[in-house]
Amino acid sequence: MTTVPERLLTRSEEHGPPVSPEPRDRTLPLLSLRDVRIGDTGDGREIVHGVSFDLTPGKAVGIVGESGSGKTLTCRAALGILPAPFEVTGGAVEIDGTDIASLTPARWTALRGSTIGAVFQDPASYLNPSLRIGRQIAEVLRVKKGLGRREARGRVLDLLRAVHLRDPELVHDQYPFELSGGMLQRVLIAAAIAADPRILIADEATTALDVTVQAEILDLLAGLREQAGLALVVVSHDLAVVAQLCDEVLVMRQGEVVEQGPARGVLDDPRHDYTRLLIREHEQYGLEKFLTPQEEA
Ligand SMILES: Nc1ncnc2c1ncn2[C@@H]1O[C@H](COP(=O)(O)OP(=O)(O)OP(=O)(O)O)[C@@H](O)[C@H]1O
């Protein structure tokens, strides 16, 4: 694991207190889902049939399962951004002990980015095509961290370096259309960690990246977890990613959690036929190298 540059770990106290106080206890969940159910209000169907987990600082929960099983809707429910016609129809989501159903729009604005951040697939749709990359990330730093123009520029360059973009000065001044999909994905990751969120939801965030870059980004996230206590929700079809990064895993099929438990336990000794099938299908990704016992240092 690489050491995360000090400047990426520093919360800028000089710019006022954080929006939400530091957790007093690292054993208290930052994010809790309690039997979260999601329905389609158009036809009244329930799409997600109850998801529960607790995420404490520095921990990572992985969600795996086939396409359409409800992984992304679950993440969006946790972020309070379910698209119509979907709605949370049961259960509750708590961020830092607060039920998100009680959050005002202003409180949500304060929480997003600085307490909870997210990276989804399809990075181009999350960036403004007419603004240079550097300006878009700097905007996050100026709004969420109160940084001035010069300070923000320095930190944007640090962030672009941290996500292993070569020639950060050049990327800083480029427009989204000038970058490849993999580069845009890294820009989004940089923007998502810019305001030092305490929770990061990464929904297939490294899927579009080539293997080497993916490994570097996973390393960066592992470093932020370890050193800054970042809590992660990782959605990935790649069980090797989940095995490498996550403490706990949820296996979803057709909106249902069919198996849940410690990642090593579930992936080493799956109880459900569907989990076994997923593991068999993913053997080609080299899952076994993450499951074999670690050698003594
Ligand atoms: N914007 C939308 N409009 C209509 N249906 C949707 C929308 N988003 C999700 N769905 C439907 O809701 C169900 C759950 O979708 P969701 O995106 O959560 O699955 P997923 O497990 O993340 O899949 P994938 O791995 O393909 O991203 C699916 O049946 C999907 O077709």
TrEMBL record:
SUPFAM superfamilies the record matches: P-loop containing nucleoside triphosphate hydrolases (SSF52540)
Region feature (Disordered): 1-26
Residue ranges of domain ABC transporter in the record: 33-279
The keyword Cell membrane appears for this protein: yes
Keyword presence, Membrane: yes
Principal location class: membrane
GO molecular function: ATP binding; ATP hydrolysis activity
PANTHER family recorded: DIPEPTIDE TRANSPORT ATP-BINDING PROTEIN DPPD (PTHR43297:SF2), OLIGOPEPTIDE TRANSPORT ATP-BINDING PROTEIN APPD (PTHR43297)
Record's protein name: Peptide ABC transporter, ATP-binding protein
Native species: Streptomyces griseoflavus Tu4000
Classification of source organism: Bacteria, Bacillati, Actinomycetota, Actinomycetes, Kitasatosporales
